[in-house]
Automatic annotation (TrEMBL):
This is Phosphotransferase family protein. SUPFAM superfamilies: Protein kinase-like (PK-like). InterPro entries: Aminoglycoside_PTrfase, Kinase-like_dom_sf. Residues 108-276 form the Aminoglycoside phosphotransferase domain. It holds the Pfam family APH.
Amino acid sequence: MTDRDLPDPATVEAVLGSHQGAWGVGGRVLAVQDLSPGLGRAAVLRVSTTAADGRPAQWIVKIPDWGNGSLLDSRDSQLDRREARFFASGIPGLLPSGLATPPDVGLLRHDGLTWIVMRDVGAALRRPWDPAAARALAARTALLHAPGAAHPDLLDTPWLEREGHAAYAHHIPSGHDNLDALADDPRLSTLFTAEQVRALHACLDAAGQLDALAAGLPATLVHGDLQPLNAGLDGDGTLLLIDWEHVGVGPVGFDLGTFVSLYRAFGGSGSLDEQQLLAVHGDALSELAGADLRPAVARGFAVAHLSWGLHLRLGPGLTAVRQGAHGESPEELAPHLDDIRSGCLRALAWAPVAGIGAAAGR
């Protein structure tokens, strides 16, 4: 839901026509499709055009500061501006071969808002994720270390997100409340055992410990919201990444952790061998860095699961279920409860790696 009407084709055509860009002068907008995810303030549109010479093309138009917020309730004051700053900076040009952003990005201003226009890379994004593709991603994601290694000052860029693992730490109190309410809700009373509930409370209480662990790990450029819907492999194996609102500096292993944490929730098929993915990622990163970063990668991976992953699931995730946002029937709730349960139990399995002594078995 947004708090204003989305731009119609005539408006989009007028805005594009008033700015120079790869979309060309004299192009026509044929259709506008709303792709807005509903989890944040951005409006996302797929725009079908024809150029002046009649050639068809598809573009994505993203207007970051468009609509209402959501249960995610971001406290990040830079969130609506960071992706435009990323594309306006030289960072995309520093990404090595094997990593890519959408081509032909343009930044426009209209009615006081920034519009980000880019080629539609939906064909790559729609390719299904399976364990083999996840292994390719694990290797390619290590390449995000290269820009900061070659240009150390880049990691001091002030608008990059810091402590992204704690982006949803403000949901910790609601996470505790939701866990305490499980026993009295017949829909949720069997979601976790009593031992698992105690362990999850302990992990939420370990936020300061996780902060210290993350701060002590080697830092790297991170996408910050790496999950299956924001990534795709093109025909030559290049990893295409979209949605850079959370681009920042974080611990090695963090991006792989967020991808694995949300793999099942966002359409990944098959079971992932997390240790294998860590080995692929750690080997690639260590070779790139010229040092053995594999133990650090495992700890950064654990941080992603135990902070970002738990905070999202036990806070807004369980709140949405309890408020009926996903319906009331067992069939409607099943996929959401499966993600909450499986994601939280995977996180608990990594508690010992992070030095949290409250892990519970699956």
